[in-house]
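Hey, weird one. I pasted the Outer envelope pore protein 24, chloroplastic sequence into the form twice and got a warning about non-standard characters only the second time. First submission, copied straight from the form history:
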Amino acid sequence: MIKGSLKVKNTNDKNSAGATFAVNAGNVKLRASMTEAIIVNGPSFNGLALSLEKPGSFIIDYNVPKKDIRFQFMNSIKVAEKPINLNYIHFRNDNRTILDGTIVFDSANKVSVNHVVGSGNAKLKYTYLHAGVTTFEQSYDVAKETWDFAVSRKVYGDDVVKASYQSSKKLLGLDWTRTTKQNGSFKISASFVVGEQLKTPNICAESSWDFEM
């Protein structure tokens, strides 16, 4: 059985579409994805990628246009009875390695650390889920000494409203997402730079549908 998804994105200045197809082959998945295919002035397949994935173990991605391979290995361990999720990600062409870890204290609290090897920088993020419907996130970039904040809340069952602020870019964002089993998902985003002369915000609308063949 082939499972797939189709996503269409509309922004202020361009329209694009992407698609993903996945096939189960035993305990691994074969996946082909295409993103950033511009659909206004003719097709441009800038994001074609092929993947081999074993859920919870590894992902190998091959970026066809860039001829680049990305390796990702995942593992989980327990320390003092607390689960820690670990990720090792390596990009061959850039010779760049990312280490990522998340410790889950309980169903409401978790802390994540992201580090690019050799950069001398790390990003820390704390996530708190309140009453199962409201999520607070705050992250700190050690090198830039800046904070980012986000708060999201479930409304009307299937809807999520999110507000975020990136202090390094002074970027304020607002998102509204609806996900249903029958009609896929729909998302509207708006963002603008705080402090700049008032102008039309950047607006993006995304629709996606899942299907099986």
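That's the output from the first submission. The warning seems to come from a hidden character in my clipboard, not from the data itself. Residues 22 and 31 are 4 Å apart (CA to CA).
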